[in-house]
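LOG
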Amino acid sequence: MDPDVLRVGNCSGFYGDRLAAMREMLEGGALDVLTGDYLAELTMLILGRDRMKDPATGYARTFLAQLDDCLALALDRGVRLVTNAGGVNPAGLVTAIGKVAARQGLTPRIALVRGDDLTAQARELGLGSPLGAHAYLGAFGIARALSGGADIVVTGRVTDASLTVGPAVAHFGWDHTDLDALAAATVAGHVIECGTQATGGNYAFFTEVADPLRPGFPIAEIARDGSSVITKHPGTGGAVTVGTVTAQLVYEVGDARYAGPDVTTRLDTVSLRQTGPDRVEITGVRGEAPPPDLKVCRTAIGGYRNELTVVLTGLDIEAKAELFRRQFTAACPREPAEVTWTLARLDTPDAATEQQSSALLTVVARDPDEATAGRAFTSTAVELALGSYPGFFATTVPGGAHPYGVYTAGFVPQSVAAHEVVLPDGTVEPIAAPPATRALEPLTGPLPHDPGPPGPTRRLPLGTLAGARSGDKGGDANVGLWVRDEAAYPWLAALITEDTVRELLPETARLPVRITRLPNLRAVNVVIEGLLGAGVAYQARFDPQAKGLGEWLRARHVDIPESLLEAS
């Protein structure tokens, strides 16, 4: 192992990612540490419900399947595994790993990081009575597990970047005062945490990626000062460019202060440079003391949800939709607490196929009572089938209601979580909270410079010049936009204002919008508060995780200076 460079790979960006990725990463080239990120807000709800049904579960079973295939390979190559696949039952995963190892005649040293689960004390902490309450722990428990000799480190809810920061802390001996190094490693961890999103997956300019079919998973080569190079194994698909790294950097962030339990990272200080094929260097990152509170993921069952979609074909679409809405509302046996209607005008005039001539009308019910939102609700449509608009049919048969989850963020003082590590020999050690903290203050970047008279312009999609990546943070949606040409940044920074966002995305008209400008990255980040209701499981909109929101924004037409088009 090189004392001055730590090679950290990633083999999972979510629960359900490519199953073969662990073997691909272990066989594809040199690594010191292999991480796997399996947790998201929705995943915590899924795993919490799993454990309610069977107390022995509650962890990411796909990790166990990967390990069953690759444990001997990892041990043979001396690659240490760090994962948050423990979910809501990390001790259960440790037990399960032990059984896999025993069956194979192996004896890996396994460490457990715990203390994130605050569910039992949620009420007394002012967090209500959720299904689950899990604090986002930091990297120092992982670091102690590795310095204590662990081959495998299992955690519950830690921050995604901590999976990378922890190994770096252990390797380089950093402490809580090494804020710039911690921040730089946090940036590296944030880039690789979502797997192939850093190597050409979900990339706005995907048509320019030479080999997009099966992107390789990313690697961060971390130096002693925390700076890093993002790369991938030779011969794997996808690409690592300043663009693909920028896309991941602006994914699911707020303003320029990226808060974590160990450090607050200044995203406005990040500098990127292409140093070779599939190699992007990250330098200049500055860090500040972390906030005094830990973020807590709170999940709960919000009630019951049901929906039905009917098809409207041909002429008079709006009138057909209005007739059905009125008939359905009048005939519904019980009025749910919340009913929403959505008309998707997918039809085109004089269409060559029936599908192209059709629109979709969807009705959604939510209610605390399962019967009110249940089959009786959707069966209302069947009773109208022969007495409603011409051409009536539905996309599915009526069904029962299903429970839906809600996510809310809570906060507790850093000292509340009993962060500790169980070392491979069974020794339990507490992990101290950071000695110094700093209250978060918004940092939205400099006001845009006047780009000057635009000259002649053309009305074109925003995505002609700008890339985008979007996603969810609880009930908020984030859209990061960037341009690749320095000359285009003043135009983008001036264009993206609250008013422009509301004009281009009409759904945001009545919602708070926050804009952050990141000149170093030639990027503008947009946070739309409340667009996703109570989080992804609430399914407040057609795209409940806002994954396609950025691509919709890129498709909206704006006035682009011809001078920028000529330079692109």
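LOG (cont.) second protein
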Amino acid sequence: MSIRLLLESFLGLMKESGELDKLLPLLVTSMGHDIPFSAQKGVREYGIDVVSVGRDPEDGHRKIFYWLIKCGDIGRTEWNLTNQSIRQSIDDAGDTFLSTNVLPQHKKLRRKLVILTNGNFKTEIRQTLSQYLDAWNSRHQADSLMVNGSLLALWTEHYLLDENILPPEHRTLFRRVLANIANPELSVPVGRQLIKGILTPPEFSKLQTPKQKKRRLSAFRAVRTALTVIFQWSINEGGLETVRQLLEYAVLESWAQIHGDLEKLDKSILQEFAELQYQMLGAGQSYTTKISPYLVLNDALSLQAGDALVTNTLTFREIGQLGLHGVTWGFFATQTTGDFSTLATQWASICSALISKTLQTHSCSQSPAFDYQAVDIHCGLLCLMITEKRNEAAMWVTNIIGRLGFIVKDKKKYWPMAAKFEEVLETRNSSSEPNPEFLDVSSLIPILAMWCAVLNIDESYQVIRQRILPSMPDLSLNIWSSDLDFDGIVNEPTTLHESGFGQVLSGLPETAAQLLSILKEEVEGIPPLDKNSWYRNRVSMIPLLAALHWKLQIPKQMLVEHISAFQLTRSTG
């Protein structure tokens, strides 16, 4: 299938609100237009959805464009038989909007009304609409254009996915992602290759020229467009895991590229990065809505997974994802105002409530099977804490430590192992003792111990010190600190795994507070927190996202910052 036909099919699936109206500003800015106005959601703006200023793709002249968006095929009903009819919108635009919503610098520009749909204009209405627009154009001294789904697909291909951004090899990758959208194991690696290929062409080493800056901006927009297509395709195919992972990777890949040039970058590129984050959160909203029925019913995830270890993996993955998104929404709630701040607060609460419910409905949430699930637990705890669910957080940590204290004697095959899924599955189904290599390191225990400090659960801390650690004398308590190159390698799991500084704790001090004091001490050679670009620029999702996405560790600098912040809140509250 050609890219154009694929785009036309994809665009035809879009709804007007929240989808088509989100794509249009992306498209017109890629056409080189400025957007002085776009309609607010829920507010009637006299028929017009977007106003843009730029070159007319038909004759090349600079004009002011008034975009009227409608969804689906346009026939007689859509033309003039409802309160939201096209004729009513055109009349409103001509009578009120065109004369009252023009900036002084644009008053001399020729005006053009664009009626855009992702469907078709039915034969029954074409002549009527054409005659009406001729009269309207004469009356208002303007031009007009009817854009159907085919022309919209042509523009999308030309301006957002052109041959430079999406050459033949990238188009092949794009089709492969869509063909395997329901199978993340096949589609995600290909999608990562596609995203990296779009964002890192060789010429990006010469970013000083305006042409190259424009090239980077086009690449960001192309990635967002491709991911929008993949997202819509995922909805149509009934699965969202592929697009969720690819959006995470796109955020990491783009951050690795721009983090060192933030002061030099155009605001438009920074805005594209912000939009990519919102796109990731938006996919998370859709995923959460879909998965939530399974989280609120007892052991419902097991109906999808079957095997107990698969259920365990799914449960902690959902908790980690909800935690990450909840914390990120919580951050945006404090950094923004108005409707978006309200929305962010609501979604932080939704994520927290689902975590709390999952802890009640899925008993396996109290028994991590893998050491990397320490990151899922930490993200879940952060989300609970920022939404003032301290009691739930304390109970969860207490239960996990209690379970670990129970299995540490003669059920070590259920210990959270530093091993692959297949290895843990084989170990659990075997009657022999686990491979000692699977039990020789833990990043989970130090994180749990640190949380004991802020949650004031010293009894659980003592279970670690007096029961767990004596029963596992060969267990190394591992803390990892990031290096100065951390921001630039969050997109490369192998390099990230091999970077930084490992620190092995020689046991635990008498109290959790003492442990936290020890970890707060700066170690020679380890960069302080403020040396990280993500910290200086307040993009706090990056370390958590990288750790979750690649199943690696959270930098000690960030862990200590989190715990210290909540400890300070407790001591001052």
